[in-house]
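Issue 218. Parser rejects a valid record. Input:
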Amino acid sequence: MEQRKLGASGLKVSALTLGTMTFGGTGKFADVGRTDLQTAKRQIDMALDAGVTLIDTADVYSGGISEEIVGEALSGRRDAALLATKVRYSMGPGANDGGLSRHHVIAGCEASLRRLRTDYVDLYQVHEWDGLTPIEETLEALDLLVSSGKVRYVGCSNYAAWQMTRALGIADARRLPRFVSTQVYYSLQERAIEQEIIPACLDQGLGILVWSPLAGGLLSGKYGRDREAPAGSRQLTEWSEPPVYDAEKLHDTIDVLGEIAAGHGVSHAQVALAWLLSRPGISTVVIGARTDEQLADNLAAAELRLADDELARLEQVSRPPLAYPLWHQVLTASDRLGPADLPTLAPYMQEG
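Output the parser choked on:
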């Protein structure tokens, strides 16, 4: 499997990452999946055998059970994979059991290390924005974790572009750890990150980890214009991610996915994943699966290469309208756009 640089850092990660939100499956996370320890061990083996080098989890997944399962599954072979986890969401009833305060970031990391049965994590990600804690405080806490050897790289997740770049500016000014990556939602169903976040990442050298690349299963081939969701699907539960704002556009995209998939003799999911892997700035795409069969199919996407005309069809059918000021820049600034602008704006310019 292709190994890609994580942004401007020296760390390389596999094009596909094994996501573990299904591991444990308690509380609301049972709607995503209920992978037990033995199945998790088997799926980790499948991923490692396919060339996956990064396993992504979070403290909040099933209240820490996902991390515990990962730690048990990797017992005695910690060096077989890079580990990424996250902190921010509440892990208890106390006022300081959530957020990105110095208190919670450090306590959260130490708790994650215990559950993961390791003395360090390769990538520690702040899981969501905390507008009540000064960014300086969060970055100083991350600095303590890096300098103590408990964390090797830091990243953010679900940050808006301005939040991410503000943190980068403060980190640079104060010589604190700089985010090397951001983990964000991106798929053929929702391409909003192309308009601000991806250009910011290209400009600032952040790698992009993609979560929910199949839009919670919407792009898996199970759904369609005239097909009801099959029994057991996540879309029939109370899990509300991702929201669908334009069902007709989604169905049009699924139709094109199916046509291209049929031409290659592969699944809808493989085509959707291969399209993402072709996009600028993407370091790795996080895949998860309820079954071994789903995982095997997703892993095969790393070897699928789509033709230029197929990529263009998918780009066009799923293309969102440009928000201001980007549409204005297409009209009036196309003669002086730079390398961070063009991946997003070039298709719109070509259509005039």
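Fixed in the parser; the record now loads. The chain has two domains: 3-316, 321-352.
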